[in-house]
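Quick question, first post here. What does this chain look like in 3D?
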Amino acid sequence: MGEKRPFQILSIDGGGIKGLYSAVILADFEERYGQLYKHFDLICGTSTGGIIALALAAGVPAKEIVNLYVEHGPIIFPYKSRISRHIAYWKQLIIKSKYDDEKLKSALKHVFGNKRIKDCKSYVLIPTSNITEGKSCIIKTDHADELGRDSNHLLVDVALATAAAPTYFPIQKIPTMPKPDDQFVDGGLFANNPSLYGIQEAYRFFIGKENYGYEKFSLLSISTLQKNIGFQSENRHLSIRGWGSKLISQMIHLQTISTHFHIEYLNKSLNGHYVRIENEPLTEKESKLIDLDMACEESINLLIEKGHETSSKWIDDPRLQRFFELDNQQIKLRGEPVGAMQ
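> Answer (accepted):
Ran it through. Tokens below.
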């Protein structure tokens, strides 16, 4: 029997254009340690994190993902001045989604082409929300006999579905689903931080199974750039308009940190290896430049700057280096049954 090894998971949060911050961190890690899909058995991502996860798993260099955000972000999210953003807010509130999806779809096609889930070089797990059935939907690699639904989904379709934030982007369909008319929106409604689903997948199918050599999990979780979203209101009876975008931000942030606390607790009992990479607190001025769809030049530059700043603090940390300690033979055998390691 082969040597026991950890089942390694990379998980990337959702957060719109703030995913540029995550992509910069991952590009810096990749420059030091080599392409990331070679080091992780499973790559999970929601919304913008789902786009990054699919790209990494498909073998797209992380630097190209950074370029996707830098070059296409300002086109996908065109509202930059205070006046244009205010007009867009009213459009979003009472008329239709704030953005169409054509520019995003064009950018994704440039990256993914006609690649499908089955073309990915590592396993993937992408949360999205099926609003037709009112259920969560996890799109993932068909890596077991009991799975067989998702292999032929185009990466572009999956990326659009997981990133279809309600009121920001249109509702999506995935033509290769068993029910092709079902409609999907952002997986961030229930799993903005998809790490727990990655752990669940690992234990359900891989860890402790006789035909695999995995004994525990090893999880690297990457946040998007988080600003301080706390606030106080003198009006205790806020309307939908009064809450505005603060409602979505609060829900996403609280759900994300709740997942982090759950994993910290699980990690103690399961004896895994867990690293969560977040940003340092932002100044008040910096916070004003950060939002799901704020893609002006100052915001883009700040996301890049903070990404490099965070990666420099972690890149030589022994806790991070543990994810990249496998030798070339072990990397080659990732995901192979134990018999293949004899």
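The longest helix spans residues 245-270.
The first strand starts at residue 5 and ends at 12.
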